[in-house]
Design brief:
The protein is of the alpha/beta class. The protein is 41% helix and 16% strand. The chain is globular. The protein starts with a strand and ends with a helix.
Length: 349
C-alpha cells in the first residue's frame, strides 16, 4: 500500500509528491510549521490527504507546546490550528479536520482534562482520522466500482488516488480499483493535468504500480478521444462540493465535464462525505485558490514562457451540477436532484 502520510514519534512522514515519479522521497516534518509548509507547497495534496495532514499538524502543534499553564497551552493550540487552516483555501477537508480537532480540544477543556491528557487524545484523534480515511475510500471504491461497466475505458483528471488520500484505494482511482477488484477489465486514460502535471506524474505512476493499464494523454486530447468513442466514463475527485452538487476540483475538470456531456459519457465525482460543504448553496460561493505563476511559466524549473508575460493560475474550477451524473460517497451514491440526495446522505448516521 502506498503510504501518503504517516504519524511517527519523530514527526509526520509524507511522500514528497513534488518529486514523483522520478524520486520517491519520505521527508519527516517535525513541527506544525513544517507540516503547514508541506500542505501549502504541495508536498502533500488532494483534499482527503490534506485533511489527514491538517489533523496531524494540529496534534503536533499541541504536543510540542511547552506551556506550563492551560491559558498558554490553549494559545499555542489555537496558533497551530490557525496556521494550518491558513495554508490552502479550497479543500474543505482541511477545515473539517481542523474544526474536528478544535471541537475535541474544547470538549476536553470543558471536562477539565489535563494538558497531557489533551495532547495524547489529540494524537489519537489524528490517527483515527487517518484510519477512517482508509476505510472510507475502500467503501467508496466498492460502491463506485459497480457503476463502471466491464471492458470499459475510464478517463480521469488530476490525481485522486492513494496519493490524494491517507493511502490505499483513493477516491476516483478508488472507483477504478473497486471495479478491478470486482473482476472487471478496465483501461484508464489519464490526462496530464497542467500545470502541476498530477496526472502525468502521479496517476500514471500509481496505476502502473498496481498493474492497471493506463494511457497518458495531454489535456487537450480528451475531446478527440471522446468523439472517437474511446472513453466510456469519466471519474474525478473533488476538493469541495456545494449543497446543490456543484463541484470544485482541479482546474480543467469543468472542461472535461462539458465534453463528456456533449458526447453522452457519464461524468462521476468520487469524494468522502467530509468533502461536502452543506453551508454553501452553490459552487459560486466556493473560494478558488490562485497559485504562483511559475507553475505555468516553468516546467521542472525550465522556463517555457517569455519573461514578463501576464499569467493567471487558478488551481481549481467549479463544475455545475447539471454535468454530474452521480456523486459517489462512502454512504451511498447521490443522483440529481442533489439538494435532496446529498442532504439525505449527509444526514445519514
Amino acid at each position: 500500500m502506498i503510504k501518503t502520510v504517516e504519524w511517527t514519534d519523530d514527526g509526520v512522514v509524507m511522500v514528497d509528491q513534488r518529486y514523483l515519479p522520478t524520486e520517491e522521497l519520505y521527508p519527516v516534518f517535525r513541527t506544525y510549521q513544517e507540516i503547514a509548509y508541506a500542505i501549502k507547497e504541495m508536498v502533500i495534496r488532494g483534499a482527503p490527504a490534506i485533511g489527514v495532514a491538517a489533523a496531524m499538524g494540529v496534534a503536533r502543534g499541541a504536543l510540542d507546546s511547552k506551556a506550563k499553564n492551560f491559558a498558554d497551552f490553549e494559545r499555542d493550540f489555537h496558533e497551530a490550528a490557525n496556521v494550518i487552516a491558513g495554508t490552502r483555501p479550497t479543500a474543505v477537508n482541511l477545515f473539517w479536520a481542523v474544526d474536528r480537532m478544535t471541537r475535541l480540544f474544547n470538549n476536553m477543556k470543558a471536562e477539565g482534562a489535563s494538558i497531557d491528557d489533551i495532547k495524547q487524545r489529540l494524537i489519537v484523534e489524528a490517527k483515527t482520522i487517518f484510519d477512517e480515511d482508509l476505510k472510507i475510500n475502500a467503501q467508496l471504491g466498492r460502491l463506485g466500482g459497480e457503476l463502471i461497466p466491464d471492458n470499459s475505458t475510464v478517463l480521469t483528471h488530476c490525481n485522486a488516488g492513494a496519493l490524494a488520500t491517507a493511502g490505499g484505494f483513493g477516491t476516483a482511482l478508488g472507483v477504478i480499483r473497486g471495479a478491478v477488484e470486482q473482476g472487471k477489465t478496465i483501461q484508464v486514460f489519464a490526462d496530464e493535468t497542467r500545470p502541476f502535471l498530477q496526472g502525468a506524474r502521479l496517476t500514471a505512476w500509481e496505476l502502473m504500480h498496481d498493474n492497471i493499464p493506463v494511457t497518458l494523454i495531454t489535456d487537450n486530447m480528451s475531446g478527440h478521444f471522446m468523439k472517437a468513442g474511446k472513453i466510456d466514463a469519466v471519474v474525478v475527485g473533488a476538493d469541495r462540493i456545494a449543497a446543490n452538487g456543484d463541484t470544485a476540483n482541479k482546474i480543467g475538470t469543468y472542461m472535461v465535464a462539458v465534453l463528456a456531456k456533449e458526447h453522452g459519457i457519464p461524468f462521476y465525482v468520487a469524494a468522502p462525505i467530509s468533502t461536502l460543504d452543506m453551508t454553501l448553496a452553490s459552487g459560486d460561493q466556493i473560494p478558488i485558490e490562485d497559485r504562483v505563476i511559475s507553475e505555468v511559466t516553468h516546467v521542472k524549473g525550465q522556463q517555457v514562457a517569455p519573461t514578463g508575460v501576464t499569467v493567471q493560475n487558478p488551481a481549481f474550477d467549479v463544475t455545475p451540477n447539471r454535468y454530474v451524473a452521480a456523486i459517489i460517497t462512502e454512504r451511498g451514491i447521490a443522483r440529481p436532484p442533489y439538494t435532496e440526495s446529498l442532504k439525505a446522505l449527509f444526514e445519514t448516521k
